[in-house]
Amino acid sequence: MQTRYFKLLFLPGILLLTALACGFFTSDPPPELVFPATSPASTPQAVLATPTSVVPTLPAATSTSTLVPTVPASGQAPVPCAASWFFTFEKEDLGLASFCPEPVKVLEAIGQDFEGGRAYRYAPDPAYTLDQRGTIFVIYNDGEWVTFPDNWDPSQPSSDPNLIVPEGRYQPVDSIGKVWRDNQLDVRNRLGWAYEPQSKFTGRIQYYLAQSGQPSGDSHFFFIDHGKWGLVLLLNSVDMGPNKWEVVGSYP
After folding, report:
1. How far apart are CA 224 and CA 249, in angstroms?
2. Is 54 a member of any domain?
3. Domain count of the fold of the chain
4. Residue 78 placed within a domain
5. pTM of the entire predicted model
6. Residue 137 pLDDT > 70, yes or no?
């Protein structure tokens, strides 16, 4: 009884499986899946910039230099100058020759050498009508100089006969002698006695022509013929201090 019942149940199951199997294998094949074509991935390329030279643009420089005078090799003032220097500058003083001079003033002069320096009298400048007295220049050996107006005239004593002059020395006379005697502390004691009698020479004084950039802007900066050994001195009048001199040139 049980075996018969099992066969009845088993037979329909076999038939069902057979039908399913036949339907599966006889049906149309499933459609193919079509995927859209994709572009192959592009390989990234390294992009190298072409090297270029970068030249910085510099701003225009602002000139801060001051005008420097050109020093001529000859030691004379550069052209054009209406007048020439009456002497040749020393090598170390060539810079002073880079500016034009005024015409030289030629005046009669008398000079005398002393133990402590030299003194000379220059005749008055005819162009300076306010004072027609001569000028006594006292040049001390220590680099200082002073001037005095010439107040002597022939009606006054030429010398002091009471002074005892050492052997081999001389007492100055006339214009130089009066300055020497009247200023015992400032002149006589510093100059001492004269080595020789006074002698005449052709005096020359020269100033700078008024011009931009010149070494001195006033008339107290000038050049003078020393009247001995062919030397020319620069005489500089110093405000609130002793006047200074130095040798800056010479002539034959």
Report:
1. 10
2. no
3. 1
4. no
5. 0.67
6. yes
